[in-house]
Amino acid sequence: MDATSSNFTLSKILNTEDPYSSIMLAVAALLAVICYFWIQGKSKSRNGPPLPPGPWPLPIVGNLPFLNSDILHTQFQALTQKHGPLMKIHLGSKLAIVISSPYMAREVLKTHDITFANHDLPEVGKINTYGGEDILWSPYGTHWRRLRKLCVMKMFTTPTLEASYSTRREETRQTVVYMSEMARDGAPVNLGEQIFLSIFNVVTRMMWGATVEGEERTSLGNELKTLISDISDIEGIQNYSDFFPWFARFDFQGLVKQMKVHVKKLDLLFDRVMESHVKMVGKKSEEEEDFLQYLIRVKDEDEKAPLSLTHVKSLLMDMVLGGVDTSVNASEFAMAEIVSRPEVFKKIRQELDQVVGTDSIVEESHLPKLPYLQAVMKETLRLHPTLPLLVPHRNSETSVVAGYTVPKDSKIFINVWAIHRDPKHWDEPNEFKPERFLENSLDFNGGDFKYLPFGSGRRICAAINMAERLVLFNIASLLHSFDWVAPKGQKFEVE
């Protein structure tokens, strides 16, 4: 169509003497006005201070068409440059608030911590946690406090962790021996698989005292690694049922259906293990019993917050899915960063040889004497937090944060990936520089809001002490036992 015909068509449409044209113009104008006021309504709170700034949303779908769940943290970081560290995002019918600075993180996780103490339970999370009955997704309150207390007292206290050191030592030694045999035979080794097996066996032995060896150990580990990976993959997929709750019952993407299949397999395993443990209750002293025996024994002791066997299984699910997967990811990222930087590996080996010696083996008691290795671990989690947006929070009531209204039940993202790379708080933020942690007292406990790899406030990860011991002891043993080099001729990128 040429310019003449185009102008003719436009002239016809704008011809107000034509009744049809007048109707078209009226409808178009009405739609424009509706869209304008819909967007304006989404951008302002009904009473009080305005909503935070944010990108312009489309009607109904909001900002969803422009977001990629695989790189959400980097997209949020880019949008923050324009809209600021407290930003709103429309995810379908769900309003999300993105926090991207230490000050804003402090406001949410400390100043208003009780209001923001709940987590935003996704549809698939309802399946793999038995309806959100676990410590991760339970609403803040009596039930959640009891779950956390039980876990901390039996699994994560310093005396408990010291008592279970022999388990960590045995599993780590077994991994080193296996890798030595494979290296002697010139056979390839899947490092991620071996790290997973070691950490998985430690966690499960602490939970229910069971372990497997030899080929069965490898077979079971591979099966469970695949299962955990599949569940994690489903959790990472953008589920539109979370953004349009009225469609959740239809499960259009089939994610809930897939999750049920995987969870059923884990559930059968838990049933088998629990059946044998129920029969053993009372046959061991309190000092000798494992975590599962402890839970079964004390589940009915608190009349105000009794535990069902479903609650017990939900805690086991937390340990298997959360405790194993995050520790493995942290270990793999640390090894990848170290192997890709010969100068870093050299410094670690020098420190290990000086503290441990060349004729001895690493013990957990050596870890506090390895400041450079600890700095490497902290720098790894700065650049590669296992949960770049943490677990999304949800506020239990409408709040005012930094002069902006945050409506009740908003989905709250804490973009620790962006906070950890903020040039206002970090020198050369995108560079791997472990030395920066030798010059400060930053730790994993969330006291300084520019460094939050495990979160902060009431919902901070309960297993920090265990995760730190697991990961550091694993990588220290591997780095002390073997010489590591990146494959020749291959570009080694850590993503």
UniProtKB/TrEMBL annotation:
CDD domains associated with the record: CYP76-like
Membrane spanning stretches: 20-39
GO molecular function annotation: heme binding; iron ion binding; monooxygenase activity; oxidoreductase activity, acting on paired donors, with incorporation or reduction of molecular oxygen
Keywords: Heme, Iron, Membrane, Metal-binding, Monooxygenase, Oxidoreductase, Transmembrane, Transmembrane helix
Pfam families: p450
Residues that hold heme according to the record: 461
Cofactor: heme
Keyword Glycoprotein recorded: no
Assigned protein family: Belongs to the cytochrome P450 family.
PANTHER family recorded: CYTOCHROME P450 - LIKE PROTEIN-RELATED, OS08G0547900 PROTEIN
Protein name: Cytochrome P450
Organism (species): Brassica campestris
Lineage: Eukaryota, Viridiplantae, Streptophyta, Embryophyta, Tracheophyta
